[in-house]
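Table S2 (text version). Query chain:
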Amino acid sequence: MLAMLGAINVPSANLTYFFTNAAVKYDSSYCPLLTGYRTPTVAELQSIATSLTSTGSIGGTPLCPMVVWALNGIEPVLVEVVPALGTVEVLRTPSLRCKAYRICVTTTTPANG
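Corresponding structure-token output:
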């Protein structure tokens, strides 16, 4: 259901993200297919973890724990995201051929006002 919502804005994190609901191998060109979107950093995933719910907002039914591709610096890494707890933990990444979920993010510009 979250994947069908499209772009989810998380104002507290100054981010907008797409949850693709697809487990895929790492590909650095995956997110750029969505203009302006990129692979999130570990810290960015941490800031949106509790919004990974059925409604795309805090208070919806949290998604199950999942393994997601993220960037640690410039290195792609696997992380376990537990939306119910809001936790993100870097896992051992044996290969870029491992399959994990993809979340693509872009920085949102706060409205002037």
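Notes on Table S2: The mean pLDDT is 90. Residues 53 and 63 are 5 Å apart (CA to CA).
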